[in-house]
Specification:
two-stranded antiparallel sheet; Cytidine Deaminase, domain 2
Length: 271
């Protein structure tokens, strides 16, 4: 018995299936609307506006089929813990506010609590699905023989930064075969400023026995260009890690589901 649920109950089995579908949906959404350019930056394309008046106010940028799937899955999740009419009303409100199913389940808990009609049970269901979806997406990354800047990494970074509102630096710690050991936020700043301490990165690398790392600078806006402070931080980290023969594999700027790589000779050589 976990959190009041019977492991053999249909509700838990249904919730498990919904969690599976949510992870698939997040991946499917990006695969339908995204492509990797020759520069390996993710760009959104082929979006169309669909009238969503049958579900609520606002406009949806994407296909009607995907919108209907997102709405139906969200309604099914909420129907597990509330009446169908209430589930429909809350699903409409959530999609009008957060636009996508991924946006709903990865939104900040404080924001969800303040929404009209949100109950503790509904919030618990959304948090459960969010945790399950993030776990499944993380598994796709950790199960790879070698982590790379591909669609699975984009999906993973999207799921782990969806709720963030400020600049931050994530460090992906890798072993000698570039498999993910850990993913941690080591610096959090403001909307447009970030302070990074290379010593903390070096210390954490030694604690985890990391051989390589990937630096991810998250921007809450849409800019995919590193700031001068981020470029300096990446160089300082590379130089600090060179003493321990730890390499910075990639430096990434990630914003609104888009990924961009940047390099500098001092980052590559650590000198």
């Amino acid at each position: 018995m976990i959190n009041g649920f019977n492991p053999e109950s249909g509700s838990v089995r249904t919730l498990s299936r919904l969690s599976d579908q949510s992870a698939h949906l997040n991946s499917d959404y990006h695969s339908v609307h995204s492509s990797i350019s020759p520069s390996r930056s993710l760009t959104l394309s082929n979006a169309q506006t669909v009238d969503t008046s049958r579900h609520g106010n606002g406009a949806w940028c994407g296909s009607r089929e995907i919108f209907d799937r997102e709405y139906n899955i969200l309604e099914m999740v909420l129907a597990l813990v509330s009446e169908r009419k209430e589930a429909r009303q809350l699903a409409t409100l959530l999609l009008s506010h957060y636009h996508t199913f991924a946006g709903v389940i990865h939104s900040q808990e404080g924001e969800l609590r303040n929404l009209c009609g949100m109950t503790a049970a509904a919030l618990g269901a959304l948090r459960t699905v969010s945790a399950a979806a993030s776990h499944l997406i993380r598994q796709k990354v950790t199960n790879q023989p070698k982590i790379s800047c591909d669609q699975s990494l984009v999906n993973y970074l999207t799921s782990t930064t969806q709720h963030e509102r400020v600049c931050l630096m994530k460090v992906l710690f890798l072993d000698m075969e570039d498999r993910l050991i850990s993913d941690e936020i080591l610096a959090r700043g403001s909307i447009d400023h970030l302070t990074v301490y290379p010593r903390e990165v070096a210390a954490r690398c030694l604690e985890l026995d990391a051989i390589n790392i990937m630096l991810v600078f998250f921007h809450p806006g849409s800019s995919l260009s590193p700031t001068p402070e981020e470029l300096t931080a990446a160089i300082d980290i590379a130089i600090a890690l060179r003493v321990f023969k730890i390499r910075v594999r990639h430096c990434i700027v990630f914003a609104r589901g888009m990924l961009s790589l940047f390099y500098h000779d001092k980052i590559l050589t650590g000198r």
